[in-house]
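Good morning C.,

I know you're traveling, so I'll keep this short. The sequence:
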Amino acid sequence: MATVVGIFSDKQRAEGAVRALRDRGFEKEISIAAKDDKKEHGRGRSDMETGGEMGMGMGEAREGVTWGGTLGGVTGLLAGVGALAIPGIGPIVAAGPLAAALTGAVAGGVAGGLLDMGIPEQEGKRYEEDIKQGKVLAVVETDQGKAHQAEEILRSQGADEVKMYQ
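The tokens, ready to paste straight into the viewer:
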């Protein structure tokens, strides 16, 4: 297995990358995480407004909902969407396998969840800082044969940085 990570400074490009990955046959392998920039006055939206609890399936998430105000329609494309408060970052939204990993690693932050995906702790801390600064993290866990294709897609969709971990 390989893990491919892309950092996007533009949410629309991150959404385009998820769509492009899905169009090329990537489905359950895609994760995405971003700071929830629509928290208002310290209060978040309820589960009903944000699309529900962690572990929701795609069929249960309402397609096209601007979930947490952050990732637009992309959360309707991925399973396992959820909102978390990560110490040192604040509220984030995550979808895909990373969302589940973050649920179990809230105390370890994003870096702890990425560690479970084969990303070294120091690199995970750097990605955590990227999210804190408002960037969008896209992660693809796939077999070695498809990893280069995932890298190519992330780059072609405007990722600022792409890196593969094996």
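Safe travels,
E.
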